[in-house]
Write a structure and sequence with these properties.
four-stranded antiparallel sheet, 16 strands, Alpha-Beta Plaits, Ribosomal Protein S5, domain 2, binds (3R)-3-hydroxy-3-methyl-5-(phosphonooxy)pentanoic acid, 322 residues, 9 helices, alpha+beta
Length: 322
């Protein structure tokens, strides 16, 4: 019997992952870049125990649904295979942020699971191996393993597709102010959404420019150039949502208040308040600004119609054993 605990932050992508070249291995159609979100975290404990008859999962204090247990067992199976063990495991996981907040909890969840499960099985995986393992549970989880500002490489093999830190969390005092617009569970989650990307006639065009946008975002991060980051982040965001809206069936994640934020942020920029926005597979809007402007951004977002509340996070560190 052996136990380990780990914690990881969720992340917000500046250059988005949407669509896979291999669904089974979760090899992404394109590379992506994100920032870990400090203060928000998933904490997970894994205990392998020969007396268990099956894997068990307790999520935020309640037994998880069968589909969630199966997804976790998929990662545990990979770990058991690597470690040469057969014991089932009890997994206990909780988020310190509301699960209905539209924050991508699968990114922090599978990063924490990869680290806790591998450690509990007696494996000492390096960062690349942990990132690859987390990727198998949720693509974006590969990016929650390294620290700070992180790039996940697209590749044709399992071995080559993992995430690396572009810059640590102390590199840039960027703040993500999240406008919470809906706390409802999204109708089509990203695991079901990725296979639809290729049904959009726009996906090929999105992919054709992805390398260039990745390079622009990487340079903007290294130079702490928020104007450049905002420009490429918003373009990339519009391209992903254009693909979503034109896939079959169509995925339309924006709600009227999302659009209100998308109109407001460029207007603020024109007035001299530098910020940029991006949305994941849901209606909530992430607004990135310098830390010095974050309080003003929060006040302004809070006044927009339909914004229920705001949450804020600066750049967070790597997944850690806890
Ligand atoms: O990791 P997944 O399968 O939940 O996909 C994440 C997809 C987006 O959040 C929309 C974009 C991204 O790169 O995080």
């Amino acid at each position: 019997m052996s136990t380990a605990s780990a914690s990881a932050h969720p992340n917000i992508a500046f250059i988005k992952y949407w669509g896979n070249r291999d669904h089974e291995l979760r090899l992404p159609a394109n590379g992506s870049i994100s920032m870990n979100l400090a203060g928000l975290e998933t904490r997970t404990t894994v205990r392998f125990d020969g007396a268990l008859a099956a894997d068990a999962l307790v999520l935020n204090g309640a037994p998880a649904a069968a589909a969630q247990v199966a997804r976790v067992s998929g990662i545990l199976d990979l770990v058991r295979g690597m470690a040469g063990i057969t014991e089932f495991a009890e997994v206990t996981s909780s988020n310190n942020f509301p699960s209905g907040s539209g924050i991508a909890s699968s990114s922090s969840a599978f990063a924490a699971l990869a680290l806790a499960a591998s450690a509990a099985a007696g494996l000492q995986l390096d960062e690349a191996a942990l990132s690859r393992l987390a990727r198998r549970g949720s693509g974006s989880a590969s990016r929650s393993v390294p620290a700070g500002f992180v790039e996940w490489r697209a590749a044709d093999t399992d071995e080559e597709s993992y995430a690396v830190s572009v810059a640590g969390e102390a590199h840039w005092d960027l703040v993500d102010t999240i406008a919470i617009i809906s706390e409802e569970h999204k109708a089509v989650g990203s695991t079901a959404g990725h296979p639809l990307a290729d049904s959009s006639p726009l996906q090929a065009a999105r992919l054709a420019g992805a390398e260039q946008r990745l390079a622009q975002a990487r340079t903007a991060i290294l130079q702490r150039d928020l104007a450049a980051l905002a420009a490429v982040m918003e373009l990339d965001n519009h391209l992903m949502h254009a693909v979503m809206m034109t896939s079959q069936p169509a995925l339309l994640y924006w709600q009227p208040p999302s659009l209100a934020v998308m109109h407001a942020v460029p207007a603020w920029r024109a007035e001299g308040l530098l910020a940029g926005y991006t949305l994941d597979a849901g209606p909530n809007v992430h607004v990135l600004s310098a830390a010095a402007d974050a309080a003003e951004v929060a006040v302004r977002l809070g006044k927009l119609p339909g914004v229920l509340r705001v949450m804020q996070a600066s750049a967070g560190g790597a997944a850690t054993l806890a």
